[in-house]
Design brief:
With about 240 residues, the chain is α/β, with parallel strands linked by helices. The protein has one domain: 3-Layer(aba) Sandwich (Rossmann fold). The chain is built from 6 helices and 8 strands; from the N terminus they run αααβαβαββαββββ. Helix 5 links the parallel strand 2 and strand 3. It is globular and about 60 Å long.
Length: about 240
Amino acid sequence: MSSCIKDLFIEEFLNNNLIPNDEVFTRFVNFSEFLIKENTKYNLTSIVGLESILIKHFIDSIVGFEHFIALDQSKNQSGINFIDFGTGPGFPCMPILIYDLFSREEKLIKSYSLIEANQKKCKFLNKAIKILDLGKVDINVQVERLENASYTASKSKILLTGRAVSKPEKIFKNLSSFMSKNNLDILEFLYFAGPNNTFQDRYSFSAPKSKKQYLASKSYSKEYAFSKDKYSREIILYQILTN
């Protein structure tokens, strides 16, 4: 392993006010190398190469989540039940998981649910989880679309995430089906939006197969730059309640 990638890892983490350490670095390398290897079989991602994966997947994902955590320092953020839909080969969930497990004294996330409709990507994720030596962690990978997915973890402090997966109207339509199917009345939705996104401040929607109505209200949004301002992202946080 070239020392250049470790130097870049440390530089990028420090530039983004993140904590670099050997535990995170080792798992970043192991995950990335396995992703590059399996990508030749399954076409998991168009972003290949350790530097690109570090910046466009790991830094992007972790920094967005850290902005969410920093919203209210007085609030106890521990005990989050994390759901990542349309996760693909594990983004933004896997970098956030690795950082939470190996860079914090007090872990913030209680459980992880990864939802992905592509069976080959889920197969990759299950293998990657074994390779990473994560210890005891509550993590479930489900081959399913969001609207049909089951959720069995705790119904308190649910944070749903997605990264540039679809248009807003389709996301909220599918989300209503997911919430209705699993009897969820409240959750937070953190969306990693691309440039020129069309997300509005409020959405009112209903589940196609039930009479339940839901209201999504934007409570926070923030644009952030990363990797020496070469790349940018906007995170948008919605509070979603039964209406």
